[in-house]
Amino acid sequence: MNAHAGQLEKVATVVIYVFLIGLAVSCVLPLIHVLAISLSSASAADAGMVTFWPIDFTFQSYQYVIGKQQFLDSMFISVKRIVLGVTLSMLLTLLAAYPLSKEKNSFRFRTLYVWVFVFTILFHGGLIPWYMTIRSVGMLDSIWALVIPGAVPVFNVVLLLNFFRNLPREIEEAAFVDGANHWVILFKLFLPLSAPALATLTLFSIVGHWNAWFDGLILMNNPTNYPLTSYLQTVVIGRELSQLSPQDAILMSSISDKTSKSAQIFAACLPVLLIYPFLQRYFIKGIVLGSVKG
Amino acid sequence: MRYRNWARELPLHVMIIPALFILILFAYVPMTGVVIAFQKFYPALGISGSKWVGWDNFEFMFKLPNTIQVLWNTVIIAVMKIIVGIVLPLIVSILLNEVNHKLTRSGIQTLIYLPHFLSWVVLAGILIDILSMKGIVNQFLQFAFGVDPIFFLGDNNWFRFVVVVSDAWKEFGFSTIVYLAAIVGIDPALYESAKADGANRWKQTWHVTIPGMMPIIVLLTTLSMGNILNAGFDQIFNLYSPVVYETGDIIDTLVYRTGLVEMSFGVSTAVGLLKSVVSLILISLSYWCAYRFANYRIF
């Protein structure tokens, strides 16, 4: 009886391992498939022969992508957007989270402010009023439209303020006794103490800006102002073919639509894959902090 | 005393002003813009110059033949996603807890968290390719089971299924994090005493692990109530096409098309307002329940 039960547990263990490893592999197989297509010859890709390993290995599709001006331009816009957007939103998040983390008796308006912030999570004006607002402040077709309207991620503010509230109160009191003011306490004490939380939020913010596509698509009238993911959306998903220049047409004869699309998809994933190891180190901590200590 | 309070609090007000300004301009001003729902709105005339039409836009909305279908699609897709999105990560995290080999475990975790960080544009680009008639999925099905090719993204029998499964695939790994944290929080003494009473692994899971995770399951279920009208714009917009509007068109995509493609600003805002108001009620209710029954507070 006991031996039988032990055997059953062993079988169960094997089944669990196989199931989970299969599931885990399924999470990257699609990416590997895209990578394999992007490195294959046009004819092999079009014939549907490529699965998870390139056939007739070639870098041609990547050469095509790298030589494509619009791809490079939109990538530059994405980088610009990340630098401006992440800096601004992290600064505003930090500045807003500090006062909101105070107790009611040391900051009498705290409750009112918190509600003003949180209500924006609960209710939205909707797409058209939002679009019209940005239009009326003259931001359409400007990089600032991708940076400023979303510069206060309220959810991140709440995460950070919860983090601040869990720092030992004594540190702050001791600093006050020593004559420090709020600015010193925020930038000299809270900032270094919350480095892991800030790192998490920064990395999330970078990925968020890199992946954002809808705002670029509707707020930029001129496609030359698209950030990379918006550009990719029009190339890969958008049903109409973008206009080809004569040189493009010649190049296209040796590079199929399929391989070049795959190369662009993979190139767009690459930055995320590159920062992913750093991201993974922090995000578990960050999320658990935010969700459990709420 | 009063003066000292102000002097001490002044920097706190100064710190909050920039964020407050941006929220007022880009969250509160658009909220006042919902009056567009009651107007025949022309951008050139602005809100003050456009004609007031009362409830006309709402009446028009409900006269459209597909509005009810769109509401229905939204709720069905969202509810299926919520259920799968709670149950699948729960199962995976319990199984993952049984994996004692450290390297295997962290390897699995690394891979399953990844899709969460990829944009729906990228994933939709991949899905459109692998789910096409000649795509790798159909090749496999034909090879393994001899099934005729299925047009997954162009078939109303399949579209919702693809949407729910691909969303589950993207998010299940990331969602396990919260569950795994709950498992870590379970008192090891409970397992010891269960073992002493002769409980095998299955019984330990059933009588210790799952009850220990109950609070977080209840909390996540309650909070998910606020998402009943969120079927996932980013995903559906990038996967759907007119042939699958019947089963795949949702409120958010309808708002986009009527507003920014057909330029019927009033009707689009009316549909959006309807969603916002219902969502406000649902989210408030879910937070209130979570506060009342799970002692959860967001701040």
From TrEMBL, chain A:
Q: Which GO terms describe its cellular component?
A: plasma membrane
Q: Please state where this protein is localized.
A: Cell membrane
Name of the molecule in the record: ABC transmembrane type-1 domain-containing protein
- Organism of this sequence: Paenibacillus agaridevorans
Q: Which domain of life is it from?
A: Bacteria
List GO BP terms, alphabetically: transmembrane transport
UniProt entry tagged with the keyword Zinc: no
Q: Which UniProt keywords apply?
A: Cell membrane, Membrane, Transmembrane, Transmembrane helix, Transport
From TrEMBL, chain B:
**Protein family:** Belongs to the binding-protein-dependent transport system permease family.
UniProt subcellular location: Cell membrane
Q: What is the lineage of its organism?
A: Bacteria, Bacillati, Bacillota, Bacilli, Bacillales
Q: Name it.
A: Sugar ABC transporter permease
Q: Name one GO biological process term.
A: transmembrane transport
Q: Where is the ABC transmembrane type-1 domain?
A: 71-286
Q: InterPro entries from the entry?
A: MetI-like, MetI-like_sf, UgpAE/MalFG_permease
Q: Does the keyword Transmembrane apply?
A: yes
